[in-house]
Description:
Elements: E1 2-10, E2 20-26, E3 36-44, H1 49-65, H2 68-71, H3 84-105, E4 114-115, E5 117-123, E6 126-132, E7 136-141, E8 144-147, E9 175-180, E10 186-190, H4 192-195, H5 200-210, H6 213-226, E11 233-241, E12 268-269, H7 293-317, H8 322-352
Antiparallel strand pairs: 1-11, 2-3, 2-12, 3-4, 3-5, 5-6, 6-9, 7-8, 7-10, 10-11
Helix pairs in contact: 1-3, 5-6, 7-8
Amino acid sequence: MNYRLGHLTHPGRVRALNEDNYGILLAPPGAPEVDALFVVADGMGGHQAGEVASAFVVENLLRLFRSSREYRTIADYSLERDDYFAAVLKDVLEALSEQLQVKAAGSEGMRGMGSTGTIALFSGQRVFIGHVGDSRAYLFRSGALRALTHDDHSEGEARNVLTQAIGAGAALRVDRSIHAVQAGDYLFLCTDGLTTMVNDAEIQQAIVAQKEPQAICNSLVALANQRGGPDNVTALAARLEANGAGPQSPVVFSSAPQPAAPVAQHDTLPVGRNAVRSQPASAAPRRRPAPGRSLVLLVVLLSAVSGATTLAVVSYLNYTEKTTAAMAVIVAVINLCVGAIAGAMLMKRSTRA
């Protein structure tokens, strides 16, 4: 399966700091059982603690799933289990939650920080969802959008209060689900900065109208910001295509749209804080330094001096012998010609370089 991707994160129109983070991992060579992994995370906490928390979740998920050996240090189940990756995601998120609590306890400014986390892991013809918090995952197929997650919000008056967050409590509940996928499906992940301003029907309409994943993300993030953009907004869309259906989609990690570079099937693209790293551009071929005009002039000058010296010496020693003097003149002229030709060749190379 190939994945044509679109993604965008934006701080919104009210907040100066973007505490959202997201990550993409495509066919890591060290974990051949993983086809792709996508994650969005929305941090919370004072000062810059929310940004730290969401970056911690994303960076460690990508690190762990780059290698089977890494994530199996936390969750070592039999690959024969039908719910293998659902169980793995549960254990991994629980472990990251404990690690984040330890990290927060070590710094006064980080205490109380936490993060949502919504992960989609593709393996074979299925996607495994691991979810904590109120970021969301959707599956779009044949014109219809279906939510794959439920928000972890309290009931009653405080409806917007999170009841679950990575790093923010001892008893973490990880929601898990498994879904069959096929070519033509869209997976859509987003943070609540989008879904508080844009409803499900509008997300479905954007997918139908835009079709291209990057255009979908651009239009929905713009819509959230047009309606006030009170929170950070992140959107990630993936269209599933059959192998050989075309090149992988452009991927750029940034808080604003930028020109994209093509991504190969087996690239691993780590993402850290907001605009972390993009694929390094291929280096341009190194050019040899062109010889300067001073070098050309030096060669010509040396050839002229050499020819003149030969003429003077031979003429002095054989002044009375006309035949020998004529030969000396011929040698000198040849020497001068060689010098001129060498100089012209060097001049030509310097202008081409």
